[in-house]
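Let's inspect a concrete specimen:
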Amino acid sequence: MGAGDNERIWAVVCRIPPGSVATYGQVAREAGLGRGARQVGRALGALGGREDVPWHRVINARGRISLPENSPGFLRQRERLEAEGVEFVAGRVSLARFGWRPSLDELLWGPPPGEDG
């Protein structure tokens, strides 16, 4: 995985609107990395302290935060999602309700100009 892959992943994550979530696999597909969900996890881990990429909007396919429960990162991610209006029921986010769905324009033509990484 090269630096270009990280940039593509981060660009996709930046497109997830507040109050929505995407799965690692969805981000990988949107970034053109097929089944690269683990790559997404590594790319988000490589952010360090950067705050310009909304990493907290990426969760696993079961609708759960992937960080160890009650760890500082887990609590920070949950707090940020709840601040955006994302609700948890029994530790899960409803992907049907809060899952990000790119617009038809984005699907057909790609991200808006200036947002393609």
User: Anything to note?
Assistant: The mean pLDDT is 90. The domain at 3-107 is CATH 1.10.10.10 (Arc Repressor Mutant, subunit A). The longest strand covers residues 22-23.
